[in-house]
Design brief:
The protein is of the alpha/beta class and about 700 residues long. The protein is built from 27 helices and 22 strands. Strands 1, 2, 5, 8, 9, 10, 11, 12, 15 and 16 form a 10-stranded mixed β-sheet that branches. It has a 6-stranded parallel β-sheet with strand order 19-18-17-20-21-22, with helices on both faces. A two-stranded antiparallel ribbon has the order 3-4.
Length: about 700
């Protein structure tokens, strides 16, 4: 009898459906609530504790819960969703990273979290999609702050057996695919991740068939070594396309998420050539059935390679297939600056009929940036579209808030959560209940931060000088500002320190105290980002600031979940127009955390005058830091702080709660992954599917 239930628990544990469905989380927590927290909600690890599992399998209450959750889960998988027949064949989604859950550490930041949200929403809509990515045994760098405040980059050593991934087998053996990197054969083992109804396949070069230097190809996300990056792009693109063919997955097209997987389009081109198409015809077929999403206006974030390296890798195209070398190299050549090398973004744009940016403002910037690729067209006719990013609401919304919405919006509100009219009902929720949940989230955030500190202190893994700087004095009763994102120059994490004396007065007001929580990693090669972190740490531990500034190290998806619901204000102040979109503010907004942001990225579309605060819609000739910092100080002093501390006799800041509700009403329906994916379907996927059908019928 118990084996039957163990099998059901394992099936649930290895499908990430449970991560965005409260019934699944509740089931695993029932095994042992304390252990569940200690294991950081790891569904695989908790099932490995067989002593506790065997004990609870004797309880009828638990067995009934297993039956119930498994029934809900199977019903979800087996019921055709609303978009099951929108496209005939799966869309292949290629991304270098996926942020699906903190126990599957194959992500670095926002790009990965967005990719994870796309797969989850595709599952919810039952849209035919298959994901391709990398298994990174070392994941992304772990962050440790040294006594001097400098970020130390620690290697991650992930135990694959502790992650919700399973090997794919062929005839009893682990399935492996291969491709060539500089004339050398490289193998990759295949792992499968179940994301509800969607499958994600991860390539892993850490296999015995490879020599040590090839096993390292998939070790770490975003390696600084240029040649290794090219090898990663080759394995992801060529290995991924080979895998789809090996598995017999007949796709309608390819969606390339940023330029890292761009070589998937080259691999597909070669497949068409092998089927008998000439080069120009193969290029045309790839273009008609491909979408490229660009996520950054920063040229420094684009992958470029010297031509001699690219020629060395791809010479088989002209030696084996007779493809004109110059024609191929032209696909990735910047005509304005050929000396920069072979450009992955230009390659992806030239091999994709459809290119989109991730916000309306980003579209405007990208059209100017890439106008030279379509020099025969006017700027407004540059064929770059946009789909503003969105976040997977069931993943990011607070569980208690979700239950409150069930009570007041109806139990099926998630099915129509991209409907604007639905969210008007939020005004009917009593302010007291709304504030009670938010206050609880603030308490939980402060508790989590202090428990992390306590754990590291008891493990003798924390320098005493960092205790205050990392949040020991945080108080959940204070107005709390959150700033959590990648630490890099244009994000301007230290902008609020422009006038330290003024900031000190704001934070230390005895009647209206304010605190700021920072979190985020700098790329190992980003010296400027590490200097920002060091500056934050040194100011945070300065007694003059009374512990009102904290930097929480080793930012990950778990901490992000607590931050986006546990602070009061989400601060965002990049240098415009360098913020392509930004999704952390959306995650905060759907939880009633109010956005204070410069007018850039998604906030230009999201701000309505009532749902937060905005600044920066002015021209600055030189250094804009002083003017932008002044705008932040004025908004805090004259609007944010007075509004937050205007409490009535019942202890509820009702005007603040009204603004929180407005944030949810305006952000949830318009900046959710459901709206986003529906736009991808209507603008691109259905057209790609139709084009593929026409090409196959020729």
């Amino acid at each position: 009898m118990s084996l039957e239930y163990i099998d059901k628990l394992k099936e649930l544990a290895y499908n990430l459906w449970w991560t965005w469905n409260p019934e699944g989380k509740k089931l695993f927590r029932m095994i042992d609530p304390i252990l569940w927290d200690e294991l950081r909600e790891n569904s695989i690890k908790i099932l490995q504790r067989t002593d506790r599992l065997n004990e609870i399998l004797k309880r009828r209450e638990f067995l009934n819960e297993v039956e119930y959750v498994y029934l809900v889960f199977r019903s979800y998988l087996d019921t055709p969703g609303p978009y099951f027949q929108k496209i005939r064949k799966p869309m292949a989604f290629f991304s270098p990273e996926y942020g699906l859950h903190h126990t599957l550490y194959i992500y670095a930041g926002g790009l990965g979290l967005l990719a994870g949200d796309i797969l989850k929403e595709a599952s919810d809509l039952n849209l035919p999609m298959v994901g391709i990515g990398f298994m990174y045994p070392q994941g992304y760098v772990r962050q440790k702050i040294k006594a001097d405040g400098w970020q130390e980059d620690l290697q991650n050593h992930i135990k694959k057996e502790d992650m919700p991934v399973q090997k794919v087998y062929e005839n009893g053996d682990w399935l492996k695919v291969y491709c060539y990197c500089f004339d050398e054969l490289v193998y990759a083992g295949v792992w499968e991740v179940s994301v509800g109804r969607v499958k994600l396949y991860l390539l892993d070069t850490d296999v015995e068939e490879n020599p040590p230097w090839h096993r390292e190809i998939s070790y770490q996300l975003y390696t600084p070594d240029q040649e290794m990056r090219l090898k990663q792009q080759i394995v992801l693109g060529f290995g991924g396309m080979f895998l789809l063919k090996k598995l017999g997955i007949d796709i309608c097209g390819v969606h390339v998420n940023e330029d890292y997987p761009a070589l998937a389009l080259v691999a597909r081109l070669i497949q068409f050539v092998e089927e008998g198409e000439d080069f120009d015809s193969a290029v045309s077929q790839v273009r008609e059935t491909s979408l490229f999403t660009t996520h950054t206006p920063l040229r420094s974030a684009i992958n470029t390679y010297p031509f001699h390296i690219v020629e060395n890798q791809f010479r088989f195209l002209w030696e084996k297939f007779g493809i004109d070398k110059e024609k191929f190299l032209d696909l990735g050549t910047n005509s304005q600056n050929p000396s920069e090398g072979f450009n992955s973004t230009i390659l992806a744009m030239r091999l994709s009929k459809y290119t989109n940016t991730v916000s309306q403002k980003h579209q405007e910037v990208a059209k100017k940036q890439w106008h030279f690729l379509w020099s025969d067209r006017s700027l407004k006719d540059v064929p770059i579209d946009y789909v503003t990013n969105g976040v997977h609401l069931p993943t990011w919304i607070d569980e208690d808030l979700r239950n409150l919405l069930n009570d007041h919006l109806g139990s099926r509100w998630l099915e129509v959560h991209d409907s604007e009219n639905l969210w008007e009902l939020i005004d009917l929720i009593p302010d007291e209940k709304f504030w009670e949940i938010h206050y609880k989230n603030k308490q939980e955030l402060c508790h989590l931060i202090k428990e992390r500190l306590r754990k590291r202190w008891t493990e003798k893994n924390l320098d005493s000088s960092l205790v205050i700087a990392e949040g020991a004095f945080l108080d959940h009763d204070f107005l709390t500002i959150g700033f959590a994102r990648r630490m890099t120059g244009y994000k301007r994490a230290t902008l609020i320190f422009e006038d330290l004396e003024r900031l000190k007065r704001i934070l230390k007001d005895p009647e209206r105290p304010v605190q700021i929580i920072f979190a985020g990693k700098a790329h190992p090669q980003d010296h400027e980002g590490k200097e920002m972190i060091q500056k934050i740490i040194n100011i945070a531990r300065n007694p003059d600031f009374a512990g009102r500034i904290a930097f929480i190290e080793d930012y990950d998806q778990e901490l992000a979940y607590y931050l986006v619901k546990g602070v009061d204000v989400w601060l965002n102040n990049p240098i415009p127009p360098l913020e392509a979109c930004g999704t952390s503010g959306m995650k905060a907004g759907i939880n009633g955390v109010i956005h204070l942001s410069i007018m850039d990225g998604w906030w230009i579309e999201g701000y309505n005058g009532k749902n937060g605060w905005a600044f920066g819609d002015y021209e600055v000739d030189d250094d804009r830091n002083p003017k932008d910092a002044e705008a932040i100080y004025e908004i805090l002093e004259n609007e944010v702080i007075p509004l937050y501390y205007y409490w009535d006799e019942t202890g509820i800041p009702r005007k603040w709660v009204k603004k929180m509700k407005e944030a949810i009403k305006s952000i949830a329906p318009h900046f959710c992954a459901r709206r986003m994916l529906k736009e991808y379907i209507s603008k691109f996927y259905t057209r790609i599917d139709a084009a593929e059908k026409e090409l196959r019928n020729l």
